[in-house]
Design brief:
heterodimer, A: alpha+beta, Glutaredoxin, two-stranded antiparallel ribbon, 3 helices, 33% helix, 17% strand, globular, B: alpha/beta, two-stranded antiparallel sheet, 4 helices
Chain lengths: 107, 175
């Protein structure tokens, strides 16, 4: 699990808390999240960073970033009820974690 | 930043059709720094437009200002601003372009959104967030509504200042 963030956006603490809560619910080690700061446009391009926060499980983004350009910006997520949000829907986090567990062969 | 209780910086900025707008000529003017690409600004947007709608009958004006560097963030271009206005997203709220970023600097705006409330004399009476949680539409821009009610009643808002929450303003590099 990894969380990439940019300082210009204040959303990553909440996203990290949501991710850790979802991991805890699924019996995963909530401390096993690599948190990395993206500081420059060059970092953003190298990390394929489309905005803060970006959460990946085994390298796969928990929400499809589509064709968004790599950039130092705040990422826009859409909650399942249609609201715009700076963080992913916790239900999407749980689904992504379950999918990763299934792919890894966990029951 | 202009201090609470002190005159706010005057300005005149163009909307998406080129017409100039300035604060004043109203019992209260809400100046909101906002933009197109910030999830915080978008999450709060409907609540802020609802404030403008609900207080229009009392003569309150709201001016939305986009100060972001559109070269680095094309989503904040004048064309993208105009598209949102044409789509009806601003419902009577002029959407102004702060091309030089001078107004944002004069107000010491920090984030999108960042809300400033001026009274009839142009004195700053409130500055900060619309309400306490971008993620809870039920909060209904309560900080701003309470401040407006106070100003319209001739009272001091309490609180008169909260911490703005949102995306950092995208200043021009070297600007």
């Amino acid at each position: 699990m990894e969380l990439l963030y940019w300082d210009g956006c204040p959303s990553h603490p909440r996203a990290l808390a949501d991710l850790r809560e979802a991991m805890g619910e699924l019996g995963l080690d909530a401390g096993a999240v690599e948190v990395r700061r993206v500081a420059t446009e060059e970092d953003a391009a190298r990390e394929r960073f489309v905005g803060s926060p970006t959460l990946r499980i085994d390298g796969a983004d928990v929400c499809d970033p589509g064709a968004e350009p790599y950039s130092l910006t705040c990422r826009i997520y859409t909650r399942r009820d249609g609201r715009v949000s700076p963080t992913p829907d916790p239900a999407d986090l749980r689904d992504a974690l379950r999918a990763a567990l299934r792919a890894a062969g966990s029951p | 930043m202009p201090a609470i209780g002190q005159p706010a910086p005057p300005f005149a900025l163009p909307d998406t059709e080129g017409a100039l707008h300035e604060p004043g000529a109203a019992p209260a003017t809400v100046v909101v720094f906002t933009c197109n690409h910030c999830p915080y600004a978008l999450a709060w947007h409907e609540r802020l437009v609802a404030v403008a709608r609900d207080y229009a009958a009392l003569g309150v004006r709201m001016l939305a200002i986009n100060p972001n560097d559109a070269e680095r963030y094309p989503g904040d271009s004048p064309e993208a601003m105009a598209a949102r206005v044409r789509a009806g997203e601003f419902d009577g709220v002029p959407y102004l372009r702060d091309e030089s970023q001078g107004v944002a600097r004069a107000y010491d705006a920090k984030t999108t959104p960042d809300v400033f409330l001026l009274d009839a004399q142009g004195v700053l009476r409130y500055r900060g967030a619309p309400d306490g949680d971008y993620d809870d539409p039920g909060q209904n821009a309560a900080y701003l509504r309470d401040a407006l009610d106070a100003v319209l009643a001739g009272r001091e808002p309490d609180p008169s200042e909260t911490t703005p929450v949102g995306c950092s303003i995208k200043w021009r590099v070297g600007g």
